# Entry
Amino acid sequence: PSAILDNPARLSLCKLFKWTKIATLQDNKEVFTSTVDDLEREAKKFNITIIDRQTFSEDPTYAVKNLKVFY
# Structure
């Protein structure tokens, strides 16, 4: 099944915790890219802004450090 099907649950959790801004961390494989593309489109319907989108190939260390530096 497509990971896109999990996006409504992800956005519901954001609403539950009253998050209006989120950042994403994703593997750069196509399946994850299309999932985050969909998440970004659907987030607008929930009035949630994606403030940053970090990607990585194998080691997420640098991407996580970028999130920590800016947020």
